[in-house]
Amino acid sequence: MNYLLFHAPLPRNTQEEKFQRLLSLFLDLLMKTGGNVSEALRWLAYFDKRHNLTDSTYTMGDFLKDLKKRGYIDEGNSNQAVYVPSAKAQIEIRQRSLEEIFTSLRSGGLGDHPLPKSGPGDDLSYESRPYEFGDKLEHLHLTETLNNAYLHHGLDDFQLTSQDLTVYQTEEKTLTATYVLIDASHSMVLYGEDRITPAKKVALALAELIRRRYPKDLLFIGAFGDYAWQVELNQVPFLQAGPYHTNTRDAIAMALGTLVRTKATNKQIFLITDGKPTCIREGGRYYRNSFGLDPKIVNKTLEMADKARRERITITTFMIAKDTYLQRFVQRFTQVNRGRAYYAHPQKVGLFVFEDFIRNRWKELR
Predict the structure, then answer these.
(1) pTM for this one?
(2) Contact 231, 239 (CB under 8 A)
(3) How far apart are CA 256 and CA 222, in angstroms?
(4) Can you give the residue range of the structural domain that contains 164?
């Protein structure tokens, strides 16, 4: 397991620093254990014995008391475990996920990306321009307008004409709807490699980015195995891979059903997967082929990619496995959809997703 301390100074082993280091490990373990606090604490105690994370001045008991005192865990009810993750813990996981990816992207200048063309819109900038017919009067730059009137007419013959009017420049920003689809098939945790946790971090970081920078944008999150289902934001950290095949067709169909109903200008699907499609649903039954690239399954999945193209919804596929058959399928899938595809190491998938999200978010006015 790789853990990241966010902008932390060199440890001086104060109690606060010990708590923060343990908290980073604990939150990561919460994601890996599906939100099982007891199991996460058992793993943390195991790592403590092996790596001496605590000492006599700050014990695991002290850490547990601080978790409860600071509101990171709540007591469960009679039908639940002793402790459950709190809303504060979920927010902290989202923030740390964003920080982890943002730190890697800082050299690329992550930030707002306005349209290359200025014009009438809703978001005020700090620049101004002469008034044009149709501009909203509430955007009037009063200081510059009065200054223009003084320069043009003087104080003795003060008057205000349309040539004096100046308005704040506005930037029209496009509303974007993004659907992130996370492969939750068994292969995402097969052979001891955890691929689903990085995928979850991507979805959580995107949610936090949109909340902070683009609050008008829409973000939907789904998971898929034998079938697809929508995942609420508070469920994402604790999503677990199951004994499933890979029903990519069902996932795309679910995303399309949601996106076509939105009024967003830009609509896109981010598909994070490590396997070729091995399952489709026909009526109430499933047709599966674990070997993959079954012509029936492939053709049905490609049909959905073509439907997305006709709806002008771009699918960007992030492959987190170097499977030759997966790459061969994704190449065909991408050609049909006219989308994009990337290979990304599980620990680096966030960089690719964020760069693609920022690049696609703005659409030039024509």
Answers:
(1) 0.77
(2) yes
(3) 12
(4) 123-171
Please indicate, yes or no, whether residues 213 and 74 belong to a single structural domain of this protein. no
Euclidean distance between CA atoms 356 and 366, whole angstroms:
22
Chain-centroid distance of CA 68 in Å reads 28
**For residue 110, how many C-alpha atoms fall within 13 Å in the half-sphere facing its CB?**
24
Q: Is 221 part of any domain? A: yes
Half-sphere exposure at residue 115, Cβ-oriented, CA atoms within 13 angstroms: 18
- The answer to whether residues 290 and 357 belong to one domain is yes
Residue 224 lies in a domain: yes
197 and 329 housed in the same domain: yes
Q: For residue 115, is it within any domain?
A: no
Token representation of residue 240: 């677990």
Nearest CA to 228 among 257, 203, 250? Answer: 250
Give the number of other Cβ atoms within 10 Å of residue 70's Cβ.
14
Residues 155 and 188 in one domain: no
| Domain count along the chain | 3
Indicate whether 160 and 202 sit together in one domain: no
Here the tokens at position 122 are 């809703």
Q: What is the chain's pLDDT, residue by residue, as a tens digit (366 residues)?
A: 444 434 444 445 788 999 999 999 999 999 999 999 999 999 999 999 999 999 999 999 999 999 999 999 998 776 666 899 999 999 999 999 998 887 766 544 444 333 333 334 444 444 677 877 777 777 777 778 778 777 777 766 777 777 878 877 665 567 899 999 999 999 998 877 889 999 999 999 999 999 988 888 999 999 999 999 999 999 999 999 988 999 999 999 999 999 999 999 899 999 999 989 999 999 889 999 988 789 999 999 999 999 999 999 999 999 998 888 889 999 999 999 999 999 988 888 888 888 788 777 654 333
Establish if 366 belongs to a structural domain: no
